Amino acid sequence: MPEQEGNAQATAGNKRDFRRYLRREAVILALLSALAVIFFVAVTALSHIYEAQQEFLGNRWFLRGAADLKQSHFESAVTEFRAALLYERDSYTYQLNLAEALVGLKRTAEAYAYFINLWDREPENGLVNLELARIAAQKGETEQALRYYHNAIYATWPGDQQVQRRDTRLELIEYLLNIDAKAHAQAELIALAANLEDDPVQQSRVGDLFLQAQDYEHALGEYRLSLKAEPHDPTALAGAGFSAFQLGRYSLAESYLQAAVSANPNDAQSAARLRTAALVMQMDPFQRQISVALRDRIVLKAFAAAGQRLESCSSAGAAKGPATIPVAQPGLTEEWAKMKPRITELGLRRDPDLVNTAMELVFSIERQTSNACGAASETDAALLLIAKLHESN
């Protein structure tokens, strides 16, 4: 019995020890867990502090770079953007601004490396596509330039996307005009004009670009839209007058050019075109609603002017040597001299068909002497334009 009691007491003691051990281990585990949590919180806090410090330093360098970039201090900007990237290596904004600063320094190859990497990350970024288009254009890589320009037009832009896209298309149009791709420029201009707001300044500018692309019909249309809002704008009036002049609408051209010269008396080009347009209107015998008598007087004047052109051409050729006289001129001179006795008011009245015959000869003389006989008088220039106006009739 005593032995059994001793065993029982030992067992009870062991159980108490075991319970104390478990309690001690739980406390230790709790303490360790608490310490782990504290260390984790501390490390996380330190990590956040470190990241915030890195972000602060990177942003400080970036702001310095942005200020220098704005003032075109490209060398300083490059250094500052590189410093910013030491703290945030993958920052899209920092890399983009660094690439732009490199463009400013004309370090195109380095800039291209950044831009193409940025394009891989965000192919829909408008500014990146525009810069890649400019680099391709500079290298003469037309297809690549066009692709990136079109990407930029339809890409995502910060701020006013409509303005950014319009300006990008304008830049593309100017590029196409610079490489003499007038047909492509016309197509882009038509697309631009279709989405243009009622802004007379922009409409006039697009009219100027249509003129450069030699699309005079659309140019005239844009100038007219501009003039609805600004009817006395000298630039738009001059552009409308020139467009109508190039289209052979000389009455309309005369009206616009007269207004342009009134708005800007120093516009010598418009004044010269106005005189020519007026002469065309005065010397075209095939105008509608003119009397027979006036028509005949115009033919007499045109015939005499053609004779003077032949004479001045012969004199200039004789002074330089026979080889300079146009091959067809002697025949024209003989034909003109043969017809001259018949070209009178009475002769034209008796034979109305003589009007066409006389003017055909006048037109032939003006065409064949236009390139070979030097600068023409204003009257001869007007007669040549009349010839072109009626050559398809």
Characterization of this structure:
The structure is a single chain. This protein is mainly α. It has three domains: 38-104, no CATH class; 105-283, Tetratricopeptide repeat domain (Serine Threonine Protein Phosphatase 5, Tetratricopeptide repeat), CATH 1.25.40.10; 294-390. Helix content is 80%, strand content 0%. It has helices at residues 2-70, 74-87, 92-104, 108-121, 126-139, 142-153, 161-178, 182-194, 200-212, 216-229, 234-246, 250-263, 268-283, 292-320, 329-339, 345-350, 353-370, 378-390. Helix 1 (2-70) packs parallel to helix 3 (92-104), helix 3 packs antiparallel against helix 4 and helix 17 packs across helix 18 (378-390). The longest helix is centred in the first third of the chain and has 69 residues, at 2-70.
H-E string? HHHHHHHHHHHHHHHHHH
Q: What is the CATH topology descriptor of the largest domain? A: Serine Threonine Protein Phosphatase 5, Tetratricopeptide repeat
- Regions with pLDDT < 50 over 5+ consecutive residues? 321-325
CATH superfamily of the largest domain: Tetratricopeptide repeat domain
Q: What is the CATH architecture descriptor of the largest domain?
A: Alpha Horseshoe
User: How can the largest sheet be summarized?
Assistant: none
Helical percentage: over 70%
Describe the oligomeric state of these chains in a short phrase.
Answer: single chain
Q: What spatial form do the alpha-carbon principal axes imply?
A: rod-shaped
CATH class of the largest domain: Mainly Alpha
- Number of separate strands: 0
Number of helices: 18
Task: Give the termini separation.
Answer: 145 Å
Structural class: mainly alpha
> What proportion strand?
under 5%
Q: What's the Cα radius of gyration? A: 42 Å
